[in-house]
Amino acid sequence: MNILYLHGLDSKLSPEKRLVLEKFGKVYAPDLDYYTDENAIQTILNYYPNLEIDVVMGSSMGGFAGYHVANIIDRPALLFNPAVAKRSVKQHIPDFGEKFNKLKHIVIGQIDDVVEPKDTLNFLLSHFNPVTDLHLHLVPELGHNIPVPFFEEEVTSFFSKL
Predict the structure, then answer these.
(1) Who contacts 149 (Cβ-Cβ below 8 Å, separation ≥6)?
(2) 2-160 domain in CATH 3.40.50.1820?
(3) What are the C-alpha distances in Å from 82 to residues 20, 22, 49?
(4) Rounded alpha-carbon distances, angstroms, from residue 75 to 4, 161, 162
(5) Distance (Å, whole) CA 27 – CA 149
(6) Which of 146, 47, 34 is nearest to 90 (CA)?
(7) Domain coordinates of the chain in residue numbers?
(8) What is the reported pTM?
(9) Helix and strand totals (H; E) in the chain
(10) How far, in Å, CA of 149 to CA of 49, rounded?
């Protein structure tokens, strides 16, 4: 299983979270600069041209990119507080005829003070597709940062649905 993990705006995949993911497959986590690369989604698609990605994961800005990459390559996705509605940096979304028909497991921290939960929910409602296997996990006590034990629970739950 090849796992594509996309980090957030000012973060990287931590060694602890990498260990969690490595229980489920080989992890590919490109180092992205969303500030200077307005075409980060296309950059991600170009990173591994000959690799079959099985699942896409991301958090915050990586959740935004992961949402679109997963739709473009038609793969399941696990996204934490995805910045799908608003971003602090400009990003171009390539037009690849998004498919929206694979599992999307989206975790939203209800006390996130970086990515507004209402905006994410409104975006998902406005882009709702009844053929998508959409799992929303609204977590009342979760903010923007994802603690490792919670991350492990969500990753395990996601893989159990595949």
Answers:
(1) none
(2) yes
(3) 20, 22, 24
(4) 10, 13, 11
(5) 18
(6) 34
(7) 2-160
(8) 0.94
(9) 5, 6
(10) 33
Indicate the SS3 state at residue 96.
Answer: coil
Residues 6 or more apart whose Cβ sits within 8 Å of residue 64: 58, 82, 83, 84, 87, 91
Range with the lowest mean pLDDT among 22-31, 97-106, 133-142?
A: 97-106
Q: Put the strands of the sheet holding 2-6 in their side by side order.
A: 26-28, 2-6, 55-59, 77-80, 104-109, 134-139
What is d(CA 104, CA 128) in angstroms, rounded to the nearest whole number?
A: 11
Q: How far apart are CA 111 and CA 117, in angstroms?
A: 8
pLDDT tens digits for 62-109?
999 999 999 899 999 999 999 999 988 999 988 876 566 679 999 999
CA angle 52, 56, 60 (to 5 degrees): 150
